[in-house]
Specification:
This protein is α/β, with parallel strands linked by helices and about 130 residues long. The chain has three helices and eight strands; from the N terminus they run βαβββαβαβββ. The strands form two sheets. A four-stranded mixed beta sheet has the order 1-4-3-2. The radius of gyration is 15 Å and the shape is globular.
């Protein structure tokens, strides 16, 4: 069993694509029209192209409720690994990213949480 596709719900696919590519550094892989929404995926610039992140539109009312509840509770929707969390934190801060927390050590893992501009908290972590 392998992870080939995972998703993050977004309030605006266009805005999400800009943030995930221009700020986070992902690369657009798929962009297929599907009515009002798109099958829109990105892949890590430094990682394997066969593991995709779907920027999932929220066309289903319960998904909006779920996303809002996670955000209000401060719970990250997903997490991304980085090699140097301090450098990534500083780079992203310079780009205007809103961080909920600075890099913090918890055991042997350093983590920081930021807002993706599309309704989600996202965690960065370094092992």
């Amino acid at each position: 069993m392998k992870i080939k596709l995972t998703s993050v719900m977004v309030t605006d696919q266009h805005k999400a694509l800009q943030f995930y590519t221009e700020v986070l550094g992902f690369v657009k892989k798929s962009d297929i029209a599907m009515g009002e929404a798109r099958w829109l995926t990105v892949v890590p610039a430094e990682g394997p192209e066969d593991i995709e992140l779907l920027l999932e539109p929220m066309g289903f009312a319960p998904s909006r409720t779920y996303q809002k509840a996670l955000f209000e509770a401060g719970i990250p929707a997903t997490a991304f690994a980085v090699d140097d969390i301090e450098a990534e934190y500083e780079r992203m801060k310079k780009l205007g990213v809103n961080f909920k927390s600075e890099p913090t050590l918890s055991g042997t893992i350093a983590m920081a949480v930021f807002e993706d501009t599309c309704g989600n908290w996202i965690e960065l972590y370094q092992v």
